[in-house]
Amino acid sequence: xxxxxxxxxxxxxxxxxxxxxxxxxxxxxxxxxxxxxxxxxxxxxxxxxxxxxxxxxxxxxxxxxxxxxxxxxxxxxxxxxxxxxxxxxxxxxxxxxxxxxxxxxxxxxxxxxxxxxxxxxxxxxxxxxxxxxxxxxxxxxxxxxxxxxxxxxxxxxxxxxxxxxxxxxxxxxxxxxxxxxxxxxxxxxxxxxxxxxxxxxxxxxxxxxxxxxxxxxxxxxxxxxxxxxxxxxxxxxxxxxxxxxxxxxxxxxxxxxxxxxxxxxxxxxxxxxxxxxxxxxxxxxxxxxxxxxxxxxxxxxxxxxxxxxxxxxxxxxxxxxxxxxxxxxxxxxxxxx
Length: 337
Ligand SMILES: [Zn+2]
Prior knowledge:
Layout: E1 3-8, E2 13-18, E3 65-68, E4 96-101, H1 115-133, E5 140-147, E6 159-165, H2 170-186, H3 190-201, E7 205-208, E8 212-215, E9 226-230, H4 242-260, E10 269-274, E11 289-294, E12 296-298, E13 301-302, H5 307-311, E14 315-317, H6 321-333
Parallel strand pairs: 2-14
Antiparallel strand pairs: 1-2, 3-4, 4-6, 5-6, 5-10, 7-8, 8-9, 9-11, 10-11, 12-13
Helix pairs in contact: 1-4, 4-6
The structure holds zinc ion.
Zinc ion binds near residues 41, 47 and 106.
């Protein structure tokens, strides 16, 4: 049993590990098992040749396929903001939102891609980041995948989203400040310190390659949360050498397969790529990494983010990170390569 508070150094907050509560009586419903999707769905707006809401038809793509989101949250066509009353402020919701279909296979899954396809996806993330921060001039690029009905995904076609904005998203901004404060207090790089601490302990490491470490962090906020952290001083994906990008693809693919082999039904998750904004100085300690936040705490059992987490900002993790890492490693042994 693990019952203690653990400091999250990147978000500078306590996480409460309450593993004795993981087996508490559960009267909630089970998440319905998603029906197996066909390889091609003529009604899918993400499939090759599919017609989108804008009336534009997708190409007959055979590999990664990127297009501008027809319903963007941030867009160059967003209207001028209305004047804000009193102390409030408003700004135009400027930006660019894109969708990346990983594969033409409607019934596929990121974890099911071949190594070659997976490396292509990671390179597509890199190239989109370079283009959107380069010529397009956006300050920040945030890449994420919402996977599964429990995180509100209505279309199962395997895809992620790419948001380019003139400002930095809050979590990355918070992490940058934490890295700054750690440098001032300890005179070292926080990412190096986290990697070294995980290596010294070793119990939570899932995959280690020359250039990447994948682990359930000591301070995990969710039972199967996993970080895939490059070891080198790369602030963004375009800074990474080819060799390290390959390692990142291999480590992430291996971790996703572990997550999907825990139970008879696949995991649901939120995957986010954390990268430095464009204006961050080149000698800043911030590094790019991938955070995987699985949303099921058991087979078909959804982790609800309720009063304490959503209202209070205090995560209760009812799975010990050491035990959950062991479960994931054991699941990895079942994975065919
Ligand atoms: Zn589809």
